[in-house]
Every structure is written in structure tokens, then in C-alpha cells.
Amino acid sequence: MANSLDRLFQILIDQGGSDLHLTEGYPPKLRVHGGVRAIENEPVLDTETINDYLSGICDPDSYEIFLKDGDLDFAYEMNEQSRFRCNYLKQQFGLGAVFRLIPTKIATLEELGIPPVVKRFAEIRSGLVLVTGPTGSGKSTTLAAIIDYINENYNKHIITVEEPIEFVHNNKQCVITQREVPTNCASFADGLRASLREDAEIVLVGEMRDLETIALALTSAETGMLVFGTLHTNNAVKTIDRVIDVFPSDQQSQVRTMLSVSIKGVLAQLLMKRSDKEGRIAVNEIMFSTPAVSAIIREGKTQKLNDVITQGAEQGMQFMDESIWALLQKGIVSPQEAYLKAIDKSRFKNFLPAEDAGLANSSGA
Fold this sequence. Notes:
Helices cover 37% and strands 25% of the residues. With 365 residues, it is α/β, with parallel strands linked by helices. The chain folds into two domains: 2-103, Beta-Lactamase; 109-333, Rossmann fold. A seven-stranded mixed sheet has the order 9-8-10-11-7-12-13, with helices on both faces. The protein has a six-stranded antiparallel sheet with strand order 3-2-1-6-5-4, with helices on one face. Helix 1 (2-14) packs across helix 2 (47-56), helix 6 packs parallel to helix 7 (211-222) and helix 7 (211-222) crosses helix 9. The longest helix has 15 residues, at 139-153. The N and C termini lie far apart (51 Å). The model has no long low-confidence stretch (mean pLDDT 92).
């Protein structure tokens, strides 16, 4: 039955979509340019059909684990051009799944529209660099582009710890070792801990989701490795706060000191719907470590980071709202989209059309 699901994957590709959603009791749906819509003329998924779809591309033992536990993550390669990140789940009406299309060709930072200054992260010898943003904001794609840039320009050993492996990196100038959780290592923390004994200069941690992984990332950064990690936060301030808040209150002072030394940068990313043409565009906040940034983190006054970032343009920094403002001024995004994605919404409120005044009032801005 794998070919049956491949047919839906091909529809996703042909329609320029990013995700395929299967939910028992509903027809298959696609996410295209940020919106979700049903595939035309596709019937409602019954129990037998969705079970055949999901079991058809999955290892039988893994599928049994899914039916027992209710969740499963893995990657599936339809052909040389099409690879998918697969998430299986149980939901109130039965089975479900979400498939994210992963390009087999890794886009460059230039192709993604990421500011060239981000290449400076590749030059860092040790420390912690966090790439952040909500689910579906392109964090993995941007991280893959950074790793590929390093792979083309430096001679290093890079280890990635992912769940599942998304972008497959071929060795260029670097040696790249990709490990999948839980197939190749039990957890992100275990993979990160093992990397300390594996002669790696750079480690990419697919998700820093718990205290143990974050603590190990800080320790690894302190011991001379360059650690790239991801968090589901929207900007630099929230990123720093999230890292510190994971720890018990009696450890947070020590963690602030450690983080003030080890953090080398934050690259926050959002995807915005374009108004000038179909598609979405990445918008970034960029923070590099400076003595001022380190002092603010150490003192626990993270709200002051916004001022440092705003004033740090000459050092390559950029504030999220400034990036959104630039897109709005160029007519690339609409006032409504800018307002929804902005941190300080009052700055964008006056640009909303009259008919959208309710949007601002209901949000309390």
C-alpha cells in the first residue's frame, strides 16, 4: 500500500505544499503556503484505508510500537527527490498522521533569504548558538543551510542528533555523523553526552526539550565544542528566559552565569505570508554575544536585550520588529500579517485597514 500513500505525496508536491495531514474520519488535507485545505475528490479516510496507508511505509515492528504507545516519529524517502518527516498519532476519531516534505537538496542561506551575517556563526570555535521559532517556521531548513555552509568551507567533524534525521548531509570538506533518536541513540541527552568522546568540533541537537539536554549543551559549549540547538521560542529574550527557567530556582543564578559565557548567538525565525506573490518569507531576529549581552544575562535583566539588539545593527544584529517593518515597507507582507507576527503590536496597529480594527481591539493592543 506504500504506492497509495505515494500518490498523496505526489499531489502534495505537485500543489507546492509543505505538509500532508491524514485524520481518520476526514478527507486528506494539505498545507499550502501556510493554509490548510482538503484535497479535492478524496474520500473520507476510514479505519481500513488509513491503517493501510500508515502501515505501508513503516517498519512492522515500529508500527506495532505506534499502535501500543500512540505516537511515532520517523523519516520516509519516496524517491531521490522526495523525503518526508512522518509523525503518527492517535486521536479521538482513530488514527492520524502528519507528513512534512523535506527537500533532498539543501538550500543555501542565500536561497532562503537569510541575512549573510548569519555565516558568522560558522566561524565560532566554541559556544552555544540557538536557532529558534515556532513549529513550522523553517528552523530545521535554516540549520541545515548553516551546517551545509560549514561542510563546504571548513574541515571539521560535525555530529547531528535528530528525531528523526531530516536533511541528509553528504561529506564535503567535513566529516558529518548523523544519529537518529531513538534508533542510533536513546535520547538527545545521550547523543550529546556521547559526542564529547567522539572527536567532534560541532554538535547539532535537533531539539533541546528538557533540563538534562540543555544542561549538557551548556557544559559541552563550555568545554570547547560549538553546539547548535533549537527551541520553540519567538525571539532572543524569550529564548534566554526559556533556557534559564528550565532549571530549578536555586540553580538559576549559576545557569545565568554559565549562559552569559557560553551563548554566542540567537537566530530567531518566523515565516510570514507574502502579499506580493504566493508563498512565505522568512523573517529573522539576530543576536550576537557582546559584553553588554553577557552582563544583561548574568544580571537577569533580559528585557534590556531588545535595546541592545536594536542598537547593535553595526554589529550585524537585527530586532524582529525591525525585520518585519522592512518587509512591510517594501510591500512584501500585508499590514495584517505584520501586525499578527510583531512583538510590539502598537507600532503596526495604525497600518491596519479600518475593517480590521477589531483584530487589534480583540488582541488588547
